From TrEMBL, chains A, B, C:
Keywords, in A-Z order: Isomerase
The keyword Membrane is annotated on this UniProt entry: no
UniProt GO BP: glucuronate catabolic process
Protein name listed in UniProt: Uronate isomerase
EC number: 5.3.1.12
Gene that produces this protein: uxaC
Example of a GO MF term: glucuronate isomerase activity
Keyword Transmembrane: no
Gene3D superfamilies xrefs: Metal-dependent hydrolases (3.20.20.140), uronate isomerase, domain 2, chain A (1.10.2020.10)
Source species: Rosistilla ulvae
Amino acid sequence: MTSELRQRIYQQLASVELIDPHTHINPLDAGSHTLVDILGYHYYTELAHSAGMPREQIEDPAISAKEKVGRLIEGIGPIDNTIQYSWLIDICQRFFGFEGDRLDASNWEALFDSSEAQMADAGWSDEVLRRSNVKSVFLTNDFDDPLAGFDTAKYVPCLRTDDLVFHLGKPEVRQRLEAATKVSVGSWTELREAIGVLFEHFTTNNARACAISIPPSFAPEPVSDGRVETALDAVLKDGVNSDESHLRALSHRIFWTLAEMCDQYELPFDLMIGVNRGVYPTGVFQGQDLYDSRVSLIQYQQLLNAFPRVTFPISVLASVTNQELASYAWIFPNVVTNGHWWYSNTPSIIERDAAHRLEAVPRTKQIGYYSDAYKLEFVAPKFDMYRKILAKVLEQYYVIDRSWSEERAVEFGTQVLRGNVETTFKIS
Amino acid sequence: MTSELRQRIYQQLASVELIDPHTHINPLDAGSHTLVDILGYHYYTELAHSAGMPREQIEDPAISAKEKVGRLIEGIGPIDNTIQYSWLIDICQRFFGFEGDRLDASNWEALFDSSEAQMADAGWSDEVLRRSNVKSVFLTNDFDDPLAGFDTAKYVPCLRTDDLVFHLGKPEVRQRLEAATKVSVGSWTELREAIGVLFEHFTTNNARACAISIPPSFAPEPVSDGRVETALDAVLKDGVNSDESHLRALSHRIFWTLAEMCDQYELPFDLMIGVNRGVYPTGVFQGQDLYDSRVSLIQYQQLLNAFPRVTFPISVLASVTNQELASYAWIFPNVVTNGHWWYSNTPSIIERDAAHRLEAVPRTKQIGYYSDAYKLEFVAPKFDMYRKILAKVLEQYYVIDRSWSEERAVEFGTQVLRGNVETTFKIS
Amino acid sequence: MTSELRQRIYQQLASVELIDPHTHINPLDAGSHTLVDILGYHYYTELAHSAGMPREQIEDPAISAKEKVGRLIEGIGPIDNTIQYSWLIDICQRFFGFEGDRLDASNWEALFDSSEAQMADAGWSDEVLRRSNVKSVFLTNDFDDPLAGFDTAKYVPCLRTDDLVFHLGKPEVRQRLEAATKVSVGSWTELREAIGVLFEHFTTNNARACAISIPPSFAPEPVSDGRVETALDAVLKDGVNSDESHLRALSHRIFWTLAEMCDQYELPFDLMIGVNRGVYPTGVFQGQDLYDSRVSLIQYQQLLNAFPRVTFPISVLASVTNQELASYAWIFPNVVTNGHWWYSNTPSIIERDAAHRLEAVPRTKQIGYYSDAYKLEFVAPKFDMYRKILAKVLEQYYVIDRSWSEERAVEFGTQVLRGNVETTFKIS
Ligand SMILES: [Zn+2]
Ligand SMILES: [Zn+2]
Ligand SMILES: [Zn+2]
């Protein structure tokens, strides 16, 4: 039903091989095994839960994969309007030959069985990548990930640092750090050394980014050596019960140190700004986080000025922050707009956020999209949603409103979709 | 001039009989008597005032209905672009056979006279409901409303609680409470008992919701028995001049108690979040309130977690809060999106707010619209504005962008427009 | 590629002669001399810098105009997607006969030479006005501008007051004030007298507005005579190092005094709300400012109530504030919406901001656009961008969605584009 112009732009964008610059794929187990790996994605469990399905029923540890899928199908009717549901149907059609537009009691079981047989193939993950037109995906690795046993050109490591910045008060995090680095962390000097070991390990293994997700209240600033020593002493002694001021000082200094390491090791530092964790603590797994949209990039003013050589691909959780993101990317050479994150990853929001970035940010400084997928099968439907919106925006705001040629629009879309991933993360 | 597809979707939505889940209709005097009841609506007086008409001229108590309409017609030219003006013309055309598209010196007087004759008919209110395709409307009842003398199936009671939560410092409010409940309010135990009597009274009389409008700074939290006793003592003694901390503690505890009663009596609790009262104190009647858009639903985190069995249909005054509303409804089972309120009740805002809700919130958890009308004649034009926008969004984001069938789009729209009102408020 | 309807609306809007109600034109040197005056505009230097061009290269004082243009052309490729780039191409096509859609190494030099010859004509500025269909432009004059040597009907003075409100702590500002007014500023009485002299000077010279740009944290309130005397004493003694509370008290009182003078001299007071200066201090000239979008018009509640006879044309920097702006203009008689400022001056933002104003604010209280230009050549492409968007919004939201006639839509657009500039600023 879309115009022929939009369809042509879309088709040309769809032919571009993708590099997905942010996922949570497990490279040792990248594809799904049964439909439960698809339907168990938090988008379906949390939406079904929100629509009335009890958590106990969803998260019952005693049931089989098949039974769990059966239960979720029962609870999923009320969410068939959502864009997330459309990803599910896309996957079933694209990979498993499903022909309907809704999964229900009448058809899910046959699909479960036939798809399970397909996924059992040893080459399934590669088959998914091939059919999705995807060359490689970025990972989200814990800092103590050995990064072993997979092809880091296809599954590109990325150092995730939330634990270091926000959870070093927990003894188990410090123990993991010491185990991973062989550095005993008793002083700031040692802690800094340990962080350096992590960067050495990651960059040696083809890591292409450092990344972190950040609550709306965070406003990083430099912390002196003396202050961080005091803070670290307190945290080593009292852990998560340390005074808030000590925990904050330590967080800020570790964060600052990560930026220094990114500078030294020439890694982009992905900032994902705005999430409040555990707002709904009795929600389903991964369905408990929300946000306060009252956040500003002015909180990052000092950081952006202090590290002119570090590239900061920035994602924002709330669409209201998108204009600031575009404006900061328009002024600061080291700010790059990055994808459409989580609660902003729905069509009407992407449409307006993308439209503004495209018109206001240098074309070289926009990473159009990442899938944030946990299983490979989700890369294709999510990127396809984005490509359709990108085609719509290019059609309406460029070819129609600004009289661009179709070729010029496609060239621009291609750069945002693929080219800038290569240049920003130095993928050859 | 709209597409045939959009017109077909619209026509099917227009055939759905409506239940209006929030109005300020007086059930004993529901329809209008002369055009002054239409033109006296605050939207016209405040916009005419904003465009230059002095308040004294508008609110002169010495003039007749007809003279007041004549004066307003003189001042209303500069607002003929607004969507509110379009409701006025819709009413004049729909109910009174008006054929123009602007009211002016040349035509208002004839219309005043002919419409007055029509409205004098004893069955006028029912006629308006019939022509508007409306089955029933929810009311906004003061807590001491006797709820007598009308059909509560057609005019559904709703307990409005602003006075209890925000104005109990005023002696007249406490006197009204004591008079309505026959409970002498000298202690927290008694105050709580009095509130219980109100819920008993309202639910016995078919009330279907408890409701409140809330300033942006409000952040409810539980208050202990000891603390509320101290606060109430202070407020009984010093009234509205009590220390701010006492007034706040009492507000919070009464609010919390309302939520407990909603749980006990199985009433949804409508929260209308974001209004600052009296920002422009010399404005016309009901044209003095504005807002601060810096508000977050994170302020309601504790409440939403504490009352999992209470349904909270939430309205937000500023469009910037709409994404949070959709996200909270996507995660919290007890949050339902509710209508498009006041300063967000204009087409371009509704279009983007509705588009995001439709794509991100379970289809069962969205109440599309309420009219907020003071007179029955406004239900039809306001809902019609919404239906047209809903048809536009369903056409563009679903049938065109996502290849939905027209039937599926209409079914979805119908649920949002009508079905969810029935299920949320338990209308049989 | 736009519809015929939209083109017809646009053509009719394009035939309206313009008055530009806010620019930074130098009336003694209004047009450009070479392409460097065009390409040196901060939009191009800051975007090229953001895309990777070093500031030193851009701002090298040792190079010629032509060499600078050559350098900028080298760095400008990555911004050819931006709307700002489209203004550049529009200028080159409109005024200099350029026929391409991109400036590059192959064509800039010929254009530089041929355009320089054109601009050398003594009547160039008038020629630009004529070809741009512009009758007059408002200026932004320093408070000590002699306002001499130009036709104030064509170049309309406007008193810019940022220095008075925010920089009176600097000795050079006080010296400029004393030199301009012949009043020695040693007390509040004298300072107030000096401000009065400025208003006398400006209104005598056909000034049509007082204007100021304001940071997001500003929340003006009245300050007593005693308090401002203390504050001024401190500031006269310690300058910019005075205690923050003294600087703020003085700012607030001067600001309040400007409003009083606007009342007395019947000047509109343009408020441009939301800019943080120097966020990126190592950015290029005029490319260092950004913002915090967390600002509310509730901060201006006292002011708007205190000065009912002063018209406040208000611009907001962040689009999120646009709904508040429209709501405040809908309620307060003295608030007028004014243009689309700076970071909100891009098509997708203007489209949604304008759509909401048009539907919610009295038609007499909306100033559609101003160019903010530093050189006359920019007035035409910026207004043309706006006219195209205005035509799009009128087509879609009025003629299509609301069944307005084309004539009515054009009439409304014309008032917003031109008529309201005349009435608001009393241009005969
Ligand atoms: Zn992620
Ligand atoms: Zn209401
Ligand atoms: Zn300006």
